[in-house]
């Protein structure tokens, strides 16, 4: 197999806060190969954004980051100066932030911001060519009347249009990797589809690998090749998208799947997993999921389960993953008898 485009091994991130040390991310490995879409999924606070932002060292100074490997195209990102990192961001790595309003400059037109990104990262100083490229990019991501919209400011764009502008900026310099942090979360369902379609198109056009952060399994099923499920700052399970949906081997993943609406029932909104994610300033001993797990036993309260292979390219961090083979997610959560499998 070829080397991964991005290789992260043993990533841990701690934040010093008044309430104690927050164990935001622990022992995360994440490799991404050229052209693939890897989804990171998990509830709020599970460490998705912190994982992604630590790749380009975009975390606040209160973060302590440790890792064994952090390389992009074979280069060690930890050895790069702030200036070198800036040339990676917006160049070979395009970032779509969770909140576009904080990422876009409110006093600069959308077109000028995209053009500036083009000029900054390419040898061209030709501002006219850069502006023309901004119009092309806005058109590519489905902004109507791009020639006019290019002269507008971010506040004149709707939420969905701002996300499209962020996608345009992220792909402006033909990136090898796109990091998209919850590009659709703040948007209503119809607008979500209108943002995902251009993201898909942008990904296909550039051939860029993509890290797609979301808490929406519907988005995962539609977009991703591979899935990383995070819980309490750790990887609970990871597999190819079809394998994960058809044969989940971690109770947390199964809980997420059990709360998905299904076609074979009138119930369209099921209960999510009972309980709340743990406080990461005081994470539970053993398996972090044990306070909410329907099959937790004594061992789970003391021994942390390692992430181990359970099938080809499929890993689970559950002591009892073998028992879960063939078990229906709804049955595990006592919702209803086994029926049709949810398939990707
Ligand atoms: N600057 C910070 N200082 C202290 N704790 C932080 C900071 N940033 C994040 N955290 C904590 O780190 C943990 C992981 O946060 P992160 O933002 O990665 O979650 P997330 O999975 O992206 O959640 P969401 O779905 O809400 O975006 C959380 O417990 C969060 O409170
Ligand atoms: S290790 Fe135990 S608590 Fe954790 S997911 Fe598996 S069964 Fe549940
Ligand atoms: Mg986040």
UniProtKB/TrEMBL annotation:
One of its GO terms (cellular component) is plasma membrane. SUPFAM superfamilies: P-loop containing nucleoside triphosphate hydrolases (SSF52540). Keywords: ATP-binding, Cell membrane, Membrane, Nucleotide-binding, Transport. Its main location: membrane. The keyword ATP-binding applies. GO terms for biological process: peptide transport. Residues 6-257 form the ABC transporter domain. It comes from the Bacteria. It is a peripheral membrane protein. SMART domains: AAA. It is found in: Cell membrane. It holds the Pfam family oligo_HPY. InterPro entries: AAA+_ATPase, ABC_Ni/Peptide_Import, ABC_transporter-like_ATP-bd, ABC_transporter-like_CS, Oligopep_ABC_C, P-loop_NTPase. GO terms for molecular function: ATP binding; ATP hydrolysis activity. Belongs to the ABC transporter superfamily. This is ABC transporter ATP-binding protein. The lineage of its organism: Bacteria, Bacillati, Actinomycetota, Actinomycetes, Micromonosporales.
